[in-house]
Amino acid sequence: MNQIRHNWEPSEILALLQQPFNDLLYQAQQVHRHYFNPNAVQISTLLSIKTGGCPEDCAYCPQSLRYQTRVEKEELLALETVIASAKQAKANGASRFCMGAAWRRPKDKELAKVIAMIKAVKALGLETCATLGMLEQHQAQQLKQAGLDYYNHNLDTSPEYYGEIISTRTYEYRLQTLEYVRSADISVCCGGIVGMGESIDDRVSLLQQLANLPKHPESVPINLLVKVAGTPLAEVADFDPIDFVRMIAVARILMPKSMIRLSAGREKMDDALQALCFFAGANSLFYGEKLLTTDNPAQVKDQQLMQNLGLTPQMEQHCGQ
Questions:
Q1: Cβ-count burial 147-183 (b if 16+ within 10 Å, e if not)
Q2: Which of 59, 225, 257, 310 could make an SS bond with 195 (beta carbons 3.0 to 4.6 A apart)?
Q3: Residues with Cβ < 8 Å from 32, sequence gap 6 or more?
Q4: Residue 184 has pLDDT above 50, yes or no
Q5: pLDDT tens figures, 246-261
Q6: How many angstroms separate the first and last alpha carbons of the chain?
Q7: How many Å apart are CA 246 and CA 244, to the nearest integer?
Q8: 175-181: long-range contacts at Cβ-Cβ below 8 A with a sequence spacing of 24 or more?
Q9: Which ranges in the chain belong to alpha helices (H)?
């Protein structure tokens, strides 16, 4: 069943994206059932531990200090606040607790405070994930020593379209951080965002970048742009929901052992669209009413959806590659 590959050609990926919808879903579901329990979903909770004031100019992000949004700059949360949030997340069924900070890259003194948070969350029996911006090699090693399980660092879009979205950080910097994380033996959470005005060729290129990494990311978040007033992408055209499902399905086929995560944008998705995404191979989601600073479905709504679909929460399945 579906050989694990790291040499996908753009023409192959485009052919998958453009095949008849039912054929694509059938293929993706076959792959999904081969590697995973089709009725199990891994649940994560994401907490913004340091909000706003980011010097980057990512066109989608309300936390950039360059844009006039309603997000105010805040200091790093206290350790006790993070522990309380992690305990609540665990009580609500999350198996992984993710901590995000709006930094270009953390300073060592800041990282020391995050390391204390990681150790405290690990002590609660939760998997830990962090997204802190770019890392130096020694910082990745320190995070590993602290017990960090996952590091999130998205590619966002294709190399070709990247300059239209971000000018303050190069694609190569993102790939370098992923290399440091891998060399420290931390699992990788890496995906992208669709609906930013990119072409289908850009979506193909993004998927190719992810699928042709030396090792597939253990988690692949597929984000739908959340349009925020004050950001450059606030008025971009809505993304076709069927094309979003196609992205989920092709990601599942290209990276059959990875967790494919429904991430940003779910608050605007109805139950039928999310059900299609699960059928197409999504098997991870973020639980909680906020994803850093943007809205996410209420937990009771997610619980009802999972009950209606017969989905059960479970810890992540680790598949060797």
A1: ebbbbbbbbbbbbebbebbbeebebebbebbbbbbbe
A2: 225
A3: 38, 252, 256, 280, 281, 283
A4: yes
A5: 999 999 999 999 999 9
A6: 14
A7: 5
A8: 176/134, 177/134, 177/135, 177/140, 177/153, 178/153, 178/213, 180/135, 180/136, 180/137, 180/139, 180/140, 181/135, 181/140, 181/151, 181/153
A9: 10-18, 21-35, 79-91, 108-123, 137-146, 162-165, 171-183, 200-211, 241-254, 271-279, 299-309
Angle at 126 between CA 85 and CA 216, to 5 degrees: 115
DSSP assignment of 170-193:
-HHHHHHHHHHHHHTT-EEE--EE
- The C-alpha R_g of the chain, in whole angstroms, comes to 18
Q: How far apart are CA 101 and CA 196, in angstroms?
A: 22
Distances (CA, A) of 286 to 26, 194, 224, 309: 25, 17, 13, 17
Residues facing 194 on adjacent strands: 224
Catalytic residues: 54, 58, 61, 98, 129, 189, 261
The DSSP symbol for 89 reads H
Encoding tokens for residue 51? Answer: 């909000």
Closest CA to 220 of 257, 183, 246, 185: 257
- For residue 68, give both structure tokens: 């006039």
Whether 320 shows a pLDDT value over 50: the answer reads: no
CA 72/CA 69 separation, integer angstroms: 8
